[in-house]
Amino acid sequence: MFEIKRDWMLYMLLILPMAFFLVFKYVPMYGVTIAFKDFNLFQGILKSPWVGWDVFKEVFSMPEFYRALRNTAMLNLLDLIVGFPAPIILAILLNEIRMNWFKRTAQTILYLPYFLSWIIIGGIVTQLLAPQSGLVNIFFKSLGMLPVPFLTEKWHWLLTYCLVGVWQSSGWGTIIYLAAITSINHELYDAAEVDGAGRLRRIWHITLPGIKNTIIILLILNLGRILTLTFDRPYIIGNSYVIEFSDVLSTFVYRVGLQSMRYSLATAVGLFQSAVGMIFLLVTNFIANKCGEEGIW
Amino acid sequence: MNTRNSEKIFDRIVLSIILFTVILCILPFFHVAAISLSSNSAIIKGKVWLFPVEVSLQTYLDIFRDQYMTGSLFFTVQLTILYTIISMFMTTIAAFPLTQKRLLGRKIFLFLIIFTMFFSGGIIPDYLLVKNLHLTNTIWALILPGMISCFNLIILKTFFNSIPESLLESARLDGCSDLGVLFKIVLPLSTPVLATLGLFYAVSKWNSFQDALFYITEPKLYPIQLKLYQIVQNSLAVDMAVKEGSGTTTNQLPESLKSACVMFATIPIVLVYPWLQRYFVKGVMIGAIKG
């Protein structure tokens, strides 16, 4: 009790933040019970009747649910394959630049897309890729090619979705690798140079092994997030023409839940996603720890 | 001689790849900016690439004259400032006690906070909560539910932890209270990371539209991004209608106006961010090294 008296100021400070977590994080956790209820707005969460697993049975019988599940996994996996190596390569190349002013300017510009909203990016993408008026298609037409339906045909859309993601985030992604590279002992490079190793060999034998741990930990973390909620990007870049590929769990929940007001159904889908996501993260973190890494905690 | 030559070639290849990537990053902006400054007839003819044709500032004047646009800009500025102040305050008062190892129950508080990063109620329970608290269609629906970002909290906590314990101890011996330590020692030493987090909070609010999409139906309270979304969405729908040959282009907004709106929401960020870049790179690295 003595400690609590001594630290009363610290506890006072914590009251507001903890109240925030309680009200805005833990109360909604209680709200997931409506996944097991026949929720009715007028009766509220408490008085709506329990229905057991009925809502989940309905969810698991919906073809649209499986489509959204497949798309979530597919888009995230594609992002991982296309988007994961990009910042690593970019960081290694940036590190090889000797002109400091150029390196710094390049970094400033490469980070920029990360700070734009998906709406702005969506606006730019539609301007550039529109089938009739977009710059890219005007260029293709001037070469005598047919316009490419970047945003309205599902396979083209998939490619667009991936590349826009790379464009937005790979510059920012270099920060963490550049940090790892700066912590590599510089004498290793000097020694390799004396031994006659060229630049490529130095990258291969010193830089890459030096950031191997960072790469592994980020890879594991990304794998853990494979079912994570991403709303902005698929919602903005997607459209009714490509819904076959662009409808992911989060947009599905929004459509079914808030637009069609089927609260119980949407909550059940959200709960499924949250639970699977948590299991993924715990497992991958466990693997990270087993690999001798620090993991997330 | 041979090795020096190959060194030179290597340098050139690296430089050109990076240069190409950099150009790829800013070219779209130049194109959109050029369109926003060009006349509509030149745009429709496909004459506008990277430089404006038949330059006019008309679109920007139109935006500034449009009450909905300026109103939503003003609202977004207000929202961003208010949100950033509140979030920084809340994050600071949460992070400081959690770095004090002698605090009883510290681990429990930490666990309760970190757990929310892994499990959440989801969209619908969040929505019902905001609705039940009667926050929908108020500015508070856009501020309160996201006051503290766990990620930012962890960055700040990690930074506070790196301040030498002996410094805080000596202040305490001089009769400084916990609050005094926080305000007189910890915060002045933390300006780089505070600037970083402030920028993160501000940018995230400036860019957010999801919460407004869920909680706001009153057009007066539309943040700039939601406004922009309606404009962009309109353009995509019309473009597809043209492709199908079924739509009419009569009620289509001029391309230059759409581009001007995009620039309008982009320019503030482009102006602020280079000044703070050095800080936030440092700040992120501090957070990353632990992560």
Succession of helices and strands of chain A: HHHHHHHHHHHHHHHHH
Identify the CATH homologous superfamily of chain B.
MetI-like
- Proportion of β residues of chain B? under 5%
Rg of chain A computed from alpha carbons, rounded to a whole number of angstroms:
24 Å
The largest inter-chain interface, given as chain pair and residues per side, is: A-B, 96 and 97 residues
Assembly type of the chains comes to heterodimer
Helix content percent band of chain A: over 70%
Q: What is the number of strand segments of chain A?
A: 0
- Helical element count of chain A? 17
- DSSP summary, beta strand count of chain B: 0
Mean pLDDT metric of chain B? 86
- Which term fits the overall shape of chain A? globular
Shape of chain B: globular
* Number of helical segments with 4 or more residues of chain B: 13
Considering DSSP H and I runs of 4 or more, what fraction of the residues of chain B is helical?
Answer: over 70%
Output the radius of gyration of chain B. 25 Å
End-to-end C-alpha gap of chain B = 45 Å
Structural class of chain A: mainly alpha
- Major beta sheet summary of chain A: none
Q: Please indicate the count of domains of chain B.
A: 1
CATH architecture of chain B: Orthogonal Bundle
Break the fold down into its secondary structure elements and pairings.
The complex is a heterodimer of chains A (about 300) and B (about 290).
Chain A: H1 2-6, H2 8-31, H3 44-47, H4 54-60, H5 63-83, H6 85-96, H7 100-111, H8 118-129, H9 135-142, H10 154-182, H11 186-194, H12 199-210, H13 212-224, H14 232-237, H15 243-246, H16 249-259, H17 263-290
Helix pairs in contact in A: 4-17, 5-10, 5-16, 6-10, 7-10, 13-17, 16-17
Chain B: H1 2-36, H2 40-44, H3 58-65, H4 67-99, H5 106-118, H6 123-132, H7 150-161, H8 165-173, H9 178-189, H10 191-207, H11 210-215, H12 224-244, H13 255-290
How would you describe what is shown here?
The complex is a heterodimer of chains A (297) and B (291). Chain A is mainly α. Chain A is 73% helix and 0% strand. Chain A contains 17 helices and no strands. Chain A has helices at residues 2-6, 8-31, 44-47, 54-60, 63-83, 85-96, 100-111, 118-129, 135-142, 154-182, 186-194, 199-210, 212-224, 232-237, 243-246, 249-259, 263-290. In chain A, helix 5 crosses helix 10 (154-182), helix 7 (100-111) packs across helix 10 and helix 13 packs antiparallel against helix 17 (263-290). The model of chain A has no long low-confidence stretch (mean pLDDT 89). Chain B is mostly helical. Chain B has 13 helices and no strands. Chain B is globular. At the A-B interface, helix 2, helix 6, helix 7, helix 8 and helix 10 of A face helix 1, helix 4, helix 5, helix 6 and helix 9 of B.
